[in-house]
Amino acid sequence: MQSITIKGSQRESVGKSATKALRNAGKVPCVLYGGDKPVHFSADEKSFKNLIYTPNVYTATIELEGQTYAAVLQDIQFHPVTDKILHIDFYQLFEDKPVTMEIPVKLVGTSKGVMVGGALRHNMRKLKVKALPANLPDFIEADITELEIGNKLYITQLANENFTFLHPDNTVVAQVRMSRNAAKAAAEAEK
Questions:
Q1: A single Pfam family, by name (predicted)?
Q2: Which of 27, 39, 88, 159 lies 20 to 30 Å from 149 when distance is taken between CA atoms?
Q3: What angle (nearest 5°) sits at the alpha carbon of residue 48, between those of residues 89 and 90?
């Protein structure tokens, strides 16, 4: 999985006035959980642009005064009016501990059902998976080439030994449905 480096500085004071001063200076207060104790730090708001405003999923390498931590984005809070980032929570990654993440689904191929007039529905754009950090994929590839009109691609067809899905087996990832034009053409053909 691809990683983005975030350079920050540790925070000494974590009160309301200290966080307000940080935000006024263009910094975002953050907390790194998962280790022995939470690590409070701050970083420039611009450094989170490639991590947050993208459909892709990345791990974060957090550099704080000589120490580096591997982490994933756990939670983010935005201002309700201005959409500025108010606070970010990260979760520290360890090589031997599995982690849960939402991974984007990438549809590959051209469906046979779509070629004859069906409509493709992409039901699940992200899937929740559990895996060791080394086994986390950048995206999950779903081949839709064999889908005819009325067929569905279930999550069981995407199974992989490197990670497990945290969804029921009957979860539909994509399906090809009868489009209005195809239904109209079939009705006219019957006349």
A1: Ribosomal_L25p
A2: 159
A3: 20
Look at residues 141, 52, 131, 143 and name the one whose alpha carbon lies nearest to residue 90. Answer: 52
Place of tokens 């500085």: 9
The model's pTM: 0.79
Determine the 3-state secondary structure of 152 from DSSP.
strand
Strand partners, 178: 118
What whole-number distance in Å separates Cα of residue 117 and Cα of residue 39? Answer: 55
Q: Look-up: residue for tokens 């779903």?
A: 142
Is residue 48 within 8 A of residue 108, CB to CB? The reply is no
First CA to last CA across the chain, in angstroms?
A: 55
The SS3 call for residue 113 is helix
Region for 66 from its dihedrals, namely left if φ exceeds 0, alpha if ψ lies in -120 to 50, beta otherwise: left
Paired strand residues for 90: 32, 73
| Sequence-distant (≥ 6) Cβ neighbours of residue 16 within 8 angstroms | none
**Which strands sit side by side in the sheet containing 118-122, from one edge to the other?**
118-122, 172-178, 152-154
Contacting residues for 168 by C-beta, under 8 A, at least 6 apart: 155
Q: Which long-range contacts (CB under 8 A, 24 or more apart) does 68-72 make?
A: 69/32, 69/35, 69/39, 70/3, 70/133, 71/32, 71/34, 72/99, 72/101
